């Protein structure tokens, strides 16, 4: 890794060695970063692309529950977030929460899921797309338990209709949503244009975080990284070494049985079906290559959630998306 500044890894290691074991439960109350090491400094690989800070293991969204494993004197918490383990700043979390109250926050039903990103309550609390919350009746039939710097609080969601029929609505719906192809596609397509962000950079989502948030709306917990997600579902089908025709046939056949994720090393997509030019998929995409008349290919930055064909990258050194696919995962009956 290229360290900025040099020596930051040694300093982080020394901090880890000085940390103490704890056993606490907390909740993140604001959008923040889960760092790979206890440092806000940067780690890059060559060639340096500042959109990809390798010290950012993941983003943590408001309402994400963590189990704290270690603590440092200067305010770092070693946290298990369910999908990832890393380091988070103490000031971005609630104080420690009693285990019974923590379980209610994480598991108690009925629950509602947020269907719009960066939804702001009247109190100023910001909730993210795909997050789900215990629907509390302490002060109003329309209130949810959210995390604040002081702890867990019941906050009203008045003037916001909560859809109780199990279908996607404008802002809220009962959780979990029914896992149907129509619901999955509708919810995924509602995020077109949303910001891409490696490891949660600037509040964006990378490819695997986009799918993690999508699937948790349906009560399905995916792994944090694309490789883990490609090994999920009711079955996986290996595509490596197949012709383009055979890959397309396998994808189409798998789609008859359920919802399909398409994986190539470093990227994962949700298959939408066949378009006029071939297979279509939606993903949170950083970039792709296009051929040029020069020796090197041109890199096109996208940095958002988009629907694309699998021909992207054709006739480049990287190859097309379809050529690069090595596995698909099927979710359904």
How would you describe the overall organization of this protein?
The protein is α+β, with helices and mostly antiparallel strands and 333 residues long. The protein has 7 helices and 22 strands. The protein has helices spanning 8-18, 99-107, 181-189, 207-216, 226-230, 244-255, 321-324; strands at 2-4, 20-27, 32-35, 42-44, 56-60, 65-71, 76-80, 85-89, 111-114, 119-120, 126-127, 132-136, 143-148, 151-156, 162-163, 172-175, 235-238, 259-264, 267-275, 278-290, 298-309, 327-331. The strands form 6 sheets. Strands 14-13-12-9-16-15 form a 6-stranded mixed sheet, with helices on one face. A 6-stranded antiparallel sheet has the order 17-22-18-19-20-21, sandwiched between helices. Strands 2-6-7-8 form a 4-stranded antiparallel sheet. A hairpin with a 2-residue loop joins β18 (259-264) and β19. The chain is globular, with a radius of gyration of 21 Å. Mean pLDDT is 93; it is low at 164-168.
């Amino acid at each position: 890794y290229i360290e900025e500044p040099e020596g930051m890894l040694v300093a982080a290691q020394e901090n880890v060695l000085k940390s103490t074991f704890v056993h606490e439960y907390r909740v993140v109350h604001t959008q923040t970063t889960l760092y790979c090491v206890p440092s806000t400094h940067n780690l890059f690989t060559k060639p340096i692309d500042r959109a990809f800070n390798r010290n950012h293991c993941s983003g943590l969204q408001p309402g994400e529950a963590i189990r704290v494993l270690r603590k440092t004197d200067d305010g770092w918490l070693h946290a298990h977030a369910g999908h990832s383990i890393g380091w988070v700043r103490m000031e971005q979390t609630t104080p420690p929460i009693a285990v019974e109250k923590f379980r209610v926050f994480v598991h108690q039903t009925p629950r509602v899921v947020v269907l719009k990103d960066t939804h702001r309550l009247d109190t100023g609390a910001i909730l993210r797309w795909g997050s789900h919350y215990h629907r509390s009746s302490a002060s109003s039939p329309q209130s949810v338990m959210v995390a604040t710097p002081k702890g867990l609080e019941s906050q009203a969601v008045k003037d916001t209709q909560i859809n109780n029929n199990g279908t996607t609505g404008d802002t809220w719906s009962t959780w979990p949503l029914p896992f149907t192809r129509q619901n999955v596609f509708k919810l995924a397509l509602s995020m077109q244009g949303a910001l891409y962000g490696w490891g949660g950079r600037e509040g964006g989502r990378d490819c695997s975080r986009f799918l993690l948030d999508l699937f948790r709306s349906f009560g399905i917990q995916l792994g944090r990284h694309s490789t883990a997600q490609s090994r999920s579902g009711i079955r996986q089908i290996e595509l490596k070494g197949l012709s383009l025709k055979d890959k397309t046939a396998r994808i189409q056949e798998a789609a008859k049985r359920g919802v399909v994720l398409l994986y190539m090393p470093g990227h994962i997509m949700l298959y939408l079906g066949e378009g006029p030019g071939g297979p279509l998929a939606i993903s949170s995409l950083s970039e792709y290559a296009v051929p040029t008349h020069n020796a090197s290919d041109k890199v096109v930055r996208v940095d958002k959630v988009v629907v694309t064909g699998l021909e992207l990258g054709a006739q480049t050194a990287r190859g097309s998306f379809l050529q690069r696919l090595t596995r698909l995962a099927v979710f359904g009956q």
